[in-house]
TrEMBL record, chain A:
Family annotation (InterPro entries): Asp_carbamoyltransf_reg_N, Asp_carbamoylTrfase_reg, Asp_carbamoyltrfase_reg_C, Asp_carbatrfase_reg_C_sf, Asp_carbatrfase_reg_N_sf
Lineage: Bacteria, Pseudomonadati, Bacteroidota, Bacteroidia, Marinilabiliales
Family: Belongs to the PyrI family.
Protein's name according to its UniProt entry: Aspartate carbamoyltransferase regulatory chain
Assembly and interaction partners: Contains catalytic and regulatory chains.
Cited PANTHER family: ASPARTATE CARBAMOYLTRANSFERASE REGULATORY CHAIN
Origin species: Gaoshiqia sediminis
Gene Ontology MF terms in the entry: metal ion binding; transferase activity
Gene Ontology BP annotations: 'de novo' pyrimidine nucleobase biosynthetic process; pyrimidine nucleotide biosynthetic process
Cofactor(s) named in the record: Zn(2+)
Keywords of this entry: Metal-binding, Pyrimidine biosynthesis, Transferase, Zinc
SUPFAM superfamilies hit by this protein: Aspartate carbamoyltransferase, Regulatory-chain, C-terminal domain, Aspartate carbamoyltransferase, Regulatory-chain, N-terminal domain
């Protein structure tokens, strides 16, 4: 593993010199993560791999974004769909920092309120929730005050 | 509406003042919009009476068929427009959370006159005013809630408000299908408040200070046979009031169907019509408080 040539052979997604690697994303949520982090709008180089083998997740996805670094508030937005995601901050091909994501206290946007009679499902309104429980997730809608549980969660 | 205990008591105090002197021209020169996106004759008339007694002028509509909603206007646009016209908006809307959303958009205060199954805060305040008026206190009361405790928003809001006061006891009487939802029972347990659940409606109401009756609505039942089985179980009759406490009073948000037998009406413990009357004074108090008129 210490042999750089072997290591390179093992990499299924090419290494980056500067930027952020987001690992351990559940494979099925890769494109949602891309959308939440607005990586579909960036001009930075992005490489990603999907359906990679993972001991923890079965199938995982990984995203490598060159020359882009994220604030905690931004990255925590993916905690709802990728709770075990890990970030590696890369400088000159080396990992200089590792970070984990955390479910925030407030969730703005991202999730739909499960209540069909909530005003947010009937007009163009950004949803807003207070996080009551992190595991399993329970989100209280700021508007209708109903609680959306993890199994009812739909990502917008 | 997230009132503190002090604010509840302030509204009660103001309501008592308006009951002494209902006609005060505090809204002179002001325009109040009553926007009823779904019809509610009782609530609208109560608000409009309160506004008139305060000397205000009223604009608005009594159901969405007579507003631009039928042309596809969003709530957002309606509120933006009306908040340019009026000094205060009283709003009833079938969707949950609509009042909070409107309050975010509006440049003038919004009073929630009911947002779907979510909240009906002015009903809660008039219920509390009726309780304090008849019991002289909001502390140490044994409150029986009867009927549809699952969907009845008035009982939920009243439970949350009363649980801020000292040492209440709740008794819930409902069929299996219409039991008090867990989230409210969890709230009571967290607050260390005692509650008891019953399936049968019998003479143990002798303990009660307040019996809060609600309508068991046929449309809530998935199985019509179940409705037929329970619809006559939760009827309060005059004969059941024999051994009740002298201070006990019967409340009902109205309209009633058959859950309070007409023979109860002449009993001095029947309080539901006075309760509706209290709504006027309470709403005058809420308007005055909201606009800082006193």
């Amino acid at each position: 593993m210490n042999d750089p040539i072997k290591k390179k052979l093992k990499l299924k997604v090419s290494a980056i010199s500067e930027g952020t690697v987001i690992d351990h994303i559940p494979a099925e949520n890769l494109f949602k993560v891309i959308s939440i982090l607005e990586l579909d709008k960036t001009h930075n180089m992005i490489t990603f791999g999907a359906n990679l083998d993972s001991d923890k997740l079965g199938r995982k996805a990984i995203i490598k974004v060159s020359n882009q670094f994220f604030e905690d508030d931004d990255i925590n937005r993916i905690a709802l769909i990728a709770p075990h995601a890990k970030l590696n901050i890369i400088r000159d091909y080396e990992v200089v920092e590792k970070r984990i994501v955390e479910v925030p206290e407030q969730v703005v946007g991202i999730v739909k309120c499960f209540n069909p009679k909530c005003i947010t499902n009937n007009e163009a309104i950004t949803t807003s929730f207070t996080v009551l429980h992190k595991e399993p997730l329970a989100l209280k809608c700021k508007y209708c005050e109903k609680i959306t549980h993890e199994h009812q969660m739909v990502i917008k | 509406m997230d009132y503190s205990k002090e604010e509840y008591l302030r509204i009660m105090e103001l309501a008592a003042e308006f009951e002494q002197n209902p006609n005060q021209r505090l809204l002179e020169g002001k325009v109040v919009a009553t926007l009823f996106f779904e019809p509610s004759t009782r609530t609208r008339l109560s608000f409009e009476t309160a506004i008139n007694r305060l000397g205000g002028r009223i604009i608005g509509f009594s159901d969405s068929n007579s507003s631009s909603v039928t042309k596809g206007e969003t709530l957002h646009d309606t509120i933006r427009m009306v908040s340019n016209y009026a000094d205060l908006i009283v709003m009833r809307h079938p969707l949950e959370g609509s009042a909070r959303y409107a309050a975010e958009i509006s440049s003038v205060p919004i009073i929630n006159a009911g947002d779907g199954a979510n909240q009906h805060p002015t009903q809660t305040l008039l219920d509390m005013y009726s309780i304090i008026k008849t019991q002289k206190t909001l502390d140490n009361l044994n409150i029986f809630m009867v009927g549809d405790l699952k969907y009845g928003r008035t009982v939920h809001s009243l439970l949350m408000a009363m649980s801020q006061f000292e040492n209440p006891i709740f008794n819930f009487i409902a069929p299996d299908e219409l039991q008090m939802p867990d989230e409210y029972k969890i709230h009571l347990r967290e607050q260390g408040i005692r509650y008891f659940e019953h399936r049968e409606f019998t003479d143990f109401i002798s303990e009660a200070d307040i019996v809060y009756m609600t309508r068991v609505q046929k449309e809530r039942f998935s199985d019509p046979i179940e409705y037929e089985q329970v619809k006559n179980v939760y009827i309060l009759r005059n004969s059941m009031l024999k051994n009740t406490k002298p201070n006990m009073r019967i409340l009902h948000p109205l309209p009633r169907v058959n859950e309070i037998h007409p023979d109860v009406d002449k009993n001095e413990k029947a309080y539901y019509f006075e309760q509706a009357r209290n709504g006027i004074f309470t709403r005058e108090a809420i308007i005055a408080h909201t606009l800082n008129l006193i």
